[in-house]
Design brief:
The structure is a homodimer. Chain A is mainly α and about 190 residues long. Helices cover about 65% and strands about 0% of the residues of chain A. Chain A is built from ten helices and no strands. The longest helix of chain A is centred in the N-terminal third of the chain and has 22 residues. At the A-B interface, helix 8, helix 9 and helix 10 of A face helix 8, helix 9 and helix 10 of B. Chain A binds a DNA duplex (33 and 33 nucleotides) through helix 1.
Chain lengths: ~190, ~190
DNA sequence: TGTACATCAGTGAACGCGCGTTCACTGATGTAC
DNA sequence: TGTACATCAGTGAACGCGCGTTCACTGATGTAC
């Protein structure tokens, strides 16, 4: 034997963490294997002991949702969370803190737009994330028959679009106004 | 004299048209000077007689909004358009036809996300588009003091986010559901 | 417990390729006579 | 009206560079004895 399987697994995770960070900071097309391996404290050649291609890594790195984690964070508490708590999560999501920390932010918002042109594997992962988040969100809205799942999708579009717009715009005042407008729209649920 | 100034202007426009198309189809980072010049019926070297760099071209090509054109299309008619007409425009914007024709679609939706990482010139153009569209939209909503401009921003976030999500997702049914959900949210204004 | 060995995660030079940009050129054009 | 000329939009080969991937290697590791 050379190294333990656990050692390899740990390295793989380090590469993935580095990739998630860099991909969010510099976009799906803007990160080189070189830089992301350096970010994990390794050199380029070693990459292919863990992933068969960059496309595979990108798909693997995408599989991580901040929003989903957020929503489920307190789920194990036992009692179902009240609707206003869900609202609070959404408003935190639409906050300037999240906007200014893309490296640890929600990939749904960061990679929207880019994902359309990404490799099929990456799109498939992204699509699943959308479904999971929409389902989780729908389960936390006030129940009005099947309207709930449609509302969840609209809310997702609003928060993802609002965050992406707020990040894209080159004007802090406008960016703040966009986030505030979306928070207000959410509170009128 | 060599060619007439009008000839040069026409060529410049041809390059811009080709660029807009390719940029929308393949993203801000996915288009080569080579391919976009070929799309305009020219070869790479000629590019620099019209633009000083690719960044400059991208910024120039971004300056074009389908939504703004839509909203203003009937403005010269004289009578102010009723609110329900604006709603109809927004619902057409959120339609599958628009989704499936990105090459001629609204750059606000297509380039959201990508624009965060683009060159400063491009971000500035994009920011101005957002401001223009938001203002135009606010002027067409029912007037409730200053809430109107906030509402316009939220609507913009919703339709841009909805279109981007609908395009990003790898599942036609889900994509249709997202668009329908956003249209419904709009009709509840 | 100590040593010799086989494994394979990780190294770093090298590859072929496409990119943005440069540059010496060419040839269609409008002007001067 | 016809011809010689100067201009410069457009050509296409060439450049330097960074990329994803390959590959011969090395050296830290766990195992067998």
């Amino acid at each position: 034997m050379s190294y333990s399987p656990a050692h390899k697994e740990r390295t793989r995770r380090r590469i993935l963490e580095s990739a998630r960070r860099f991909l969010k900071e510099q976009g799906l097309g803007g990160v080189s294997v070189d830089s992301l391996m350096a970010g994990a404290g390794l050199t380029r050649g070693g990459f292919y002991a863990h992933f068969s291609s960059k496309d595979e890594l990108v798909a693997a790195a995408l599989d991580d949702t901040v929003l989903l984690g957020f929503l489920q964070k307190h789920k194990s508490g036992g009692t179902p969370e009240p609707v206003h708590w869900t609202r609070a999560v959404l408003e935190e999501y639409l906050g300037p803190l999240h906007r200014d920390q893309p490296a640890t932010g929600c990939p749904l918002a960061i990679h929207v737009g880019e994902i359309t042109l990404a490799a099929p594997q990456a799109r498939a992962v992204y699509t699943n994330l959308v479904k999971e988040v929409a389902t989780e969100l729908a389960g936390r809205l006030p129940r009005n028959a099947q309207k709930t799942s449609s509302e969840a999708l609209a809310i997702l579009a609003l928060i993802v679009g609002g965050m992406a717009l707020a990040r894209g715009v080159n004007d802090t005042e406008l960016s703040d106004a966009i986030l505030a407008a979306c928070r207000e729209a959410i509170s009128d649920l």
